Amino acid sequence: MKQSRRHLLRALGAAASAGALGSLPLRAQAQSTMETVKQRGSLRVGVTQAPPWYSKDPRSGQWNAGVGVSMGQAMAQELGVKFDPVEVTWGTAVAALQGNRIDLMFVLDATPERAQAIDFPKNPLLYYSLAVLAREDLPAKAWADLNQPKVRLSVPQATSMDKFLTENVSQAEIQRFPGNPEAIAAFQAGRVDAVCLFHPPLLAARQRLGRGKIVLPTPPVTNPSSVGVRREDDKTFLNWVDERIGHYYRSGQTQKWYEEFLVGFGLDPKEAPPIQKELIRS
Fold first, then answer.
1. Is the pLDDT of residue 16 over 50?
2. What is the pairing mode between strands 126-134 and 194-198?
């Protein structure tokens, strides 16, 4: 009897302890991203070789150019922490956020599938139009021209570009690659007739390759892009990111960072479609 009583008292004590832990506020049980970033002293930004969003210097190995790099550096400075680029791919970015490898990733479109797994701010990051870098002799004025079994297209896998081609240009031969460089390399090697990306990365690709034509097929497809952040109950970090990208966009700073990269890459910003919707000519 005494032994049973002792077991009962232990069980009650354990239950009381569990109840006390359960009553602790969420803040005490798990830090928010904002708290963790400040405590760690660094803002981990997902990056992938995709000018003009992210560009790594091949000589130094440093991520030192691009809209995402400039914006990440500015955000880190405002938080008083270090900018910490972490290499991922477009296809692995969501998993990197969920696995707490990165804190955010710029130019990640808020697709319905991604929105089930991570959070996106309300303000748009920027706007861009879907385009192709194609052989000079390839008919590409309309998406219907490309929707042919004889046309070979390359695209980064698990992206909004991939989703669009799958749903609208399904008759073409679509070759999917891990990221922008591999999709562009397939065009460069002649394995495909065109590479499909949003227009800004194609400007850099055309400049580097020195051949091909950039076409925005009709009907035009212009989408907002966003910033992916980890989903959590505490929305402090999400709201802060939303406020900052809204400020950068409305003040023209995002467009300025874009134009600065184009100039540094040897391109004339006046010849490139803007990424601020209000500046896009209809």
1. no
2. antiparallel
CA distance 84 to 52: 18
pLDDT, mean over the chain: 90
Q: Which two tokens stand for residue 180?
A: 């922008």
Q: Is beta strand 173-177 parallel, antiparallel or unpaired with respect to 152-156? A: parallel
Give the HSE-up count for residue 13: Cα atoms under 13 Å, Cβ half-sphere.
Answer: 6
Give the homologous superfamily in CATH for domain 31-125+226-277.
Periplasmic binding protein-like II (3.40.190.10)
Name the region of 107 (left: φ>0; alpha: ψ -120 to 50; beta: rest): left
Cross-strand bridge partners of residue 115: none
Domain boundaries, the chain: 31-125+226-277, 128-222
pTM to 2 decimal places: 0.78
Question: Model confidence over 111-138: pLDDT tens digits?
Answer: 999 999 999 999 999 999 999 999 999 9
**Fold that domain 128-222 belongs to in CATH:** D-Maltodextrin-Binding Protein; domain 2 (3.40.190)
